Amino acid sequence: MQILFALDPDRDPDRARIVHESHLARARWMTTTGYRELLRPRVS
């Protein structure tokens, strides 16, 4: 048993998979697109 994201994959494998996949999707987005938004100058 390994607890990740405060979820026990043995007890709730579907929820653990969904959380893990969404985390990876955000990480991929951040490394390909999202970082540009952080570097863009802010307009007031």
Fraction of residues in H or I helices: 55-70%
Distance between the termini: 49 Å
Count of helical stretches: 1
Count of β-strands: 0
Task: Give the tally of structural domains.
Answer: 1
Major sheet: none
| Overall geometry | elongated
Protein name: DUF2285 domain-containing protein
Structure description:
The chain is an all-alpha fold and 44 residues long. The protein has one domain (1-43). Helices cover 61% and strands 0% of the residues. The chain has one helix and no strands.
Brief overview, please?
With 44 residues, the chain is mainly α. It has one helix at residues 13-39.
List keywords for this structure.
DUF2285 domain-containing protein, 1 helix, elongated, mainly alpha, 44 residues
